[in-house]
Structure formats: structure tokens, C-alpha cells
Specification:
Blueprint lengths: L2 H5 L25 H7 L2 H26 L2 E2 L6 H12 L8 E2 L2 H30 L5 E3 L3 E6 L2 E10 L5 E15 L5 E7 L6 E5 L2 E7 L11 H6 L3 E10 L5 E9 L3 E3 L1 E3 L3 E4 L2 E4 L7 E3 L6
Parallel strand pairs: 4-12
Antiparallel strand pairs: 1-2, 3-5, 4-5, 5-9, 6-7, 6-8, 6-10, 10-11, 13-16, 14-15
Helix pairs in contact: 2-5, 3-4, 3-5
């Protein structure tokens, strides 16, 4: 493996994820469990909680079978011990089975404590997921480089898929690429890209983001081959305030060099019919070649 390959950080994928393993970090395996659960999808979270719930009850069932002393439980019956654990941790208390020994009572004390703490933690995680704001900003499948107002420009589109507007929305765009320092060290650097309009007072429908490729833009003189050679990526970060809740929401995306199309323009999404304007988001990702052909 060459030194360049060993030191190089992989480019961001189109979903703006760092697609590499992190090794050598000393961290507690449970340090980020709360954030991992809040960030997980609902199906994954529910499956995890269900497995955790069944596992905890199975462990307490084994404990009840070990210490004995549960009224009306069949000797050696895991099913009876398991369902008694379910009743105990949920504080249902049907009354059919009950602890009758000191050891069984102590296991009940431990299980009720675990149940109360677990309920509080699950409630907190569930509330955090419901209250977690989502930007729901859609990015065009490709960015393009074409002429806008007589100046070569990097352009991409964003759409607000929420039913409400984002106010004071701001976009921050940067170019990420491999470079070599004067000392010969290979590094991966961010270069901020100036935008014609960096903020959007009321982001309701769509937003076409334009970066003019003129000095001092790092894209001056670049072409598809040169961007591929330095493993370039255009990274986008968007912040805005939801006008309904007042919460700050964010979204991010990245365009690799292969995601950037040259000498095309975006297809028009607006049309007028009967005095009414229509925006067709089915054409959101469509581009039109400079000769008029649509792709």
C-alpha cells in the first residue's frame, strides 16, 4: 500500500456519510447508545426494544427458577417464570402467581426497579424521537456546471418537502479535495465556495444554489478529469428555522465528482395554466443539454 493510499481519507458519498471504519479510538461502547437509539429508524428502534424487553424478562425468569418460591408456578417451568416476570416488570399483578420466599421477593424488588428505570429511559428516547426536528430538504440528484449570466457556475437545486416553510435558511457549500502541501504532505482540505445567495428569507418551495466559478474560486480551471484526480466532493450544509415549531433544522448532502454534470442546465419546473402557477417536482432532477435535449 502506498503512503498516499494509507494517509488518504475517502471522499464523502452522495448521502454525505463517511464511508470508512474508525480504529484506534478508546471509547466506551455504551457512551453513544442514547444518540444511536435516537438516530435509529423507528423499525430498528422497536426491534431493539422488543429484543431487550424479552431478554430482560428471560433473565429474571431464570432468576425465579433458580431461587424458587413463586406461588402456583409449576416447578422447573420456564414459561410460568417468564410470564410471572412479565406481570412483575409491568406491575400488572394478576394475583395468580406471587413470590412467597425472601429470595423471590428480593428478585421482585430488583425487577420492579429495573422496570421503572427502563420505562423512564424508553419514554425519554421515544419523546426525543417524536420531538426531533427533520429538515426534509431534497437535493437534486446531480450538481451541474454551466454558464449562468455569462459566468461558468456550479449549480444545484434544493426543495422543501415539508408542509411548512423554513425561515432564515442558510446554505454553506465547500469543495473537499486532496492536496499536497509545500512540505510534500498529502492532506484533504475544505475550501468554502461563495454563493450568489447564501441565505433564503423564506424557503417554501425550491432554491437554486449558484456558485460563480471566478477568481478566487478553487474550481477555476477545473474539469471533470481534474476533479476526479483529486477525489473532489462538493459538500452542502443547510440550516433553517421551522416556522411552526421555531426549532432549528439542518440537512446535508455531498456531490462526488461523478455526480457533477457539465454543459447542461436544469429543466424548468414552473408552468402557467389558467392564470395559476404550477411547480412540477417530477422534473426536479431533470437536466437539459445545451442543444435542447432532455436527460
Amino acid at each position: 500500500m502506498s503512503d498516499k493510499t494509507a494517509r488518504k481519507m475517502p471522499a464523502l458519498t452522495s448521502e454525505a456519510r463517511l464511508n470508512y471504519r474508525r480504529i484506534g479510538l478508546q471509547r466506551d461502547g455504551f457512551s453513544d447508545i442514547y444518540h444511536r437509539l435516537v438516530a435509529a429508524s423507528w423499525p430498528m428502534l422497536l426491534v431493539f426494544l422488543a429484543c431487550l424487553y424479552l431478554s430482560v424478562n428471560a433473565l429474571f425468569a431464570i432468576a425465579y427458577m433458580t431461587v424458587g418460591g413463586v406461588t402456583n408456578a409449576r416447578p422447573g417451568s420456564f414459561a410460568d417464570a417468564f410470564f410471572f416476570s412479565i406481570q412483575t416488570i409491568a406491575t400488572i399483578g394478576y394475583g395468580t402467581m406471587a413470590p412467597e420466599s425472601f429470595a423471590a421477593h428480593m428478585v421482585v424488588v430488583c425487577e420492579v426497579f429495573v422496570g421503572l428505570v427502563g420505562l423512564a429511559m424508553i419514554t425519554g428516547i421515544t419523546f426525543s424521537k417524536f420531538a426531533r426536528p427533520t429538515a426534509r430538504v431534497r437535493f437534486s440528484r446531480n450538481a451541474i456546471i454551466t454558464t449562468r449570466e455569462g459566468v461558468p457556475s456550479l449549480i444545484f437545486r434544493m426543495a422543501n418537502e415539508r408542509g411548512t416553510s423554513l425561515v432564515e435558511a442558510s446554505a454553506h457549500v465547500a469543495l473537499l479535495r486532496d492536496e499536497v502541501t509545500l512540505e510534500g504532505e498529502e492532506v484533504r482540505r475544505f475550501h468554502d465556495l461563495a454563493l450568489i445567495r447564501q441565505t433564503n428569507l423564506l424557503f417554501t418551495l425550491s432554491w437554486t444554489v449558484v456558485h460563480p466559478i471566478a477568481a478566487p474560486s478553487p474550481l477555476v480551471g477545473a474539469d471533470a478529469q481534474s476533479l476526479e484526480a483529486v477525489d473532489a466532493a462538493v459538500v452542502v450544509s443547510v440550516l433553517g428555522i421551522d416556522e411552526t415549531t421555531g426549532q432549528t433544522v439542518h440537512a446535508r448532502h455531498a456531490y462526488n465528482a461523478a455526480d457533477i454534470l457539465w454543459n447542461v442546465r436544469f429543466a424548468d419546473m414552473f408552468s402557467e395554466s389558467g392564470g395559476q402557477s404550477t411547480m412540477d417536482f417530477g422534473r426536479f432532477d431533470h437536466v437539459v443539454a445545451n442543444d435542447g435535449g432532455t436527460t
